[in-house]
Amino acid sequence: MEHPNNNNNDKPQVENKPYHKKQLAALTDSMYEYPYQNLSLTDMEGEVWKPFPVAPFDEYYEISNKGRVKHLEQLIESHAGYTYLRPERIIKQAKNAATNHYLNQQRHSLFFILFFHAIRRTFKTSRIVYYTFVAPFDMEDPNLIVRFKDNNSLNVLPENLYLFERKKLTKWLVDHDRKQLRIRLGEMSVWPKEKIREWNKQKKLKICQYDLDGQFIAAYGSKKEASEISKTSSGDLSAAIMDGKRIAGGFLWRERYIIRTKITVSSLRIHNRPVKPQKVAQYDLDGNLIREFSSIRKAAQSNGLAPSTLKDRIRFNVQPKDFIWKAIEDSEIPSQKI
Q: Which of 230, 232, 255 lies closest to 242, judged by CA?
């Protein structure tokens, strides 16, 4: 007697019809809220891939206009001496959280980590996408930041990105009601001319506070008082007084005997002492020029060294084992032979 479970004639037959490539891409796209969550190797609809714009990672990585990062096929040699082919894959990205305490909101930014032999670097997805698909810019400049038109930091599509100067960020946040100045806007005009004249009669130094347009806000009798009232670090405040272009707490600071209601604002900077990169030249052991690098860090990354190690080799003239390194001036052309 035949078992009833063995009779499959009544079961509906499912047709194994393969998906069209565009149908599969559309189905895959609908599964995720953001493209970076999609780790499938199937291209998304309208996805374009380009080589990664930062050397030496351009050899094994690609970036797409959807903000996805792909590791290409790579031949790996193990410590045991055998080789194997690592298949291509999509790099999983992570989110870095930052809290806006004024709005009590949390904001996330996407980043990923790439490896090239002994080199390990972290990249922000928005900066790489903007550089590759919108317009190149100096990615080493900390004053240039990439912002989002819809204020959604997880939407890293090229049409949603724009370049912004960090020194203008505080003013933008205040104007768009996303940040409150440590001194309320209503308190900026409480200093009448009579009070300014009265303070100017005092023969002592005053700590003067200005907005980023150079307009006078308030004056304080000491750095400690200015730091406590404005909720600004005393160290940052002192550095801003010494360097007139530095911003502390979102304001400019001056130490004066006479209060000026308006100061001239030149180009501002975030860092107190911007360091100029040291150019270096790489030679083989016979003294022939191999390559010139614009900074020690880039030279170290290209050769799998720590920047501090390479810096010590140049500084102390360490006996070379593989290459000879020489520091060169900014305008100097390295000699072809040493």
A: 255
